[in-house]
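From the methods appendix. Each design record in this collection lists the tokenized structure first, followed by the designed amino acid sequence. Records were kept in a plain field format so they could be parsed without special tools. The example shown here is representative of the layout used throughout.

RECORD:
FOLD TOKENS (184 positions):
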């Protein structure tokens, strides 16, 4: 037997109090009070968590429904300008209509810019398959191989993320394509 096992248990005082002076009933009441406080704290935490969950769900739903609100507001002047152009189309000459179309396009591009949309116009730049879609290759003595000769359709990015690649015609070395058509 070890020294601890050989010692007799400490005797409790005859009056039912613990060695520190509190009775068993007082200790039980204090423990029950602490347990009740912990339970109340736990219930408050659960309620707060549920409120945060509901609030987050409302905010996500609102963002989904109204996330384009600012962009839509920026497009309203474009729609107004187009409607005005249609109303005055019969009385306007070609030069006035062209000026109106240019102004409308500027309004639209400004709205796109505020929304984070950017045009990809790679005319004369090296071909980049990450941003460009090659529609054809054309021999060119004036442009280096693998550069964009012509933009068929401009591309677009949204905050740096590609929405649509620019569709382009890419320069090829004149003898490279000439050999392919003879051999192929």
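DESIGN:
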């Amino acid at each position: 037997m070890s020294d601890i096992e050989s010692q007799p248990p400490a005797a409790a005082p005859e009056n039912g109090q613990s060695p520190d002076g509190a009775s068993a009933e007082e200790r039980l009441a204090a423990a029950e009070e602490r347990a009740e406080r912990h339970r109340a704290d736990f219930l408050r935490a659960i309620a707060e968590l549920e409120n945060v969950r509901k609030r987050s769900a409302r905010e996500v739903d609102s963002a989904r429904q109204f996330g384009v609100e600012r962009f839509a507001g920026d497009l309203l002047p474009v729609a107004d300008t187009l409607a005005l152009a249609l109303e005055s189309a019969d009385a306007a000459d070609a030069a006035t209509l062209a000026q109106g179309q240019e102004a409308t396009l500027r309004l639209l591009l400004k709205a796109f810019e505020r929304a984070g949309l950017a045009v990809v116009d790679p005319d004369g730049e090296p071909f980049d398959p990450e941003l460009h879609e090659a529609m054809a290759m054309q021999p060119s003595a004036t442009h280096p191989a693998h550069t964009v000769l012509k933009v068929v359709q401009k591309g677009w990015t949204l905050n740096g993320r590609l929405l649509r690649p620019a569709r382009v015609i890419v320069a090829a070395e004149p003898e490279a394509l000439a050999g392919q058509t003879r051999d192929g």
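APPENDIX NOTE: The chain has a mean pLDDT of 86.
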